[in-house]
Amino acid sequence: MRTVKIALTALALILPACAQAAPAPVTAEAHAFQIGAFKAWSLRDLTNVVPNDNSVIGQDQTPEAVAAVLKAAGQPTDHITLSIDALLVKAGDHLVLIDTGMGPKAHGVLMESLAKAGVAPDQITDVLITHSHPDHIGGLLTADGTPAFPKAVVRMTDAEWASLQANPQQAAFVTAITPQIQAFAGGTEVLPGITSVVLKGHTPGHTGYEIASGTAKLLDIGDMAHSSVVSLAKPEWAMGYDSDKPTGEATRREELTVLAKSGETIFAPHFPFPGTGKIVTKGDGFALKPTK
Fold it and tell me: Which CATH architecture has domain 2-222?
């Protein structure tokens, strides 16, 4: 269909920095774990390799400053590798997918990863969107422009939905997904056991999702932090993908401080797969203690 071609072209314009390097191919993978009584899976989609040229990571710094942080963590210093992953949660009667990756036009493997979890697209009851950048909503449509999750309600904050609707480059995509959309006020419980957590700065209605079952909790942080090394070690460094950089920087510092104190598990779609772990303090910043 012409719709999906127009929509995905528009999506690429939302986040120009994403186009600096072609997403690297990955192998489909589903990593299963528990959140209390809820079963969950990290799902692979793509990998985005960002050059260390201050176009995205540490925009207010120099490549040498970023390289020093990467080198201290034993990472390559000329680029930063960001995963593009999604989270699947079986919460009671709801089978919930949080974000949808880049989609088939970008050769994302989310559908193959979903199959590895033993789930068919028409079994998804709810799709929760953290925000409307292409690497989070591109998979809402199939290659021919039809709904990828035909029986699902697609939920995002009312602020994010309004922002998406207001973008004329997104008109075709908005038309295609409108019948499935249910917008909600940020900070509210969207499904039993799943609550929106407003994380300001990245996009107008960006939200994380806290999943709680019994005493177990996990926070999907969306794009509050991108690099598991640089974004944590230097949360005040500017992130090129943030629409409001000062607010994004303040949010990172504040939320990472809270997470380091609480010990709550996180899922970060751009951290190394499977994207789960705990935030710990390290020097004047933070680090990720991965969980497997």
Answer: 4-Layer Sandwich (3.60)
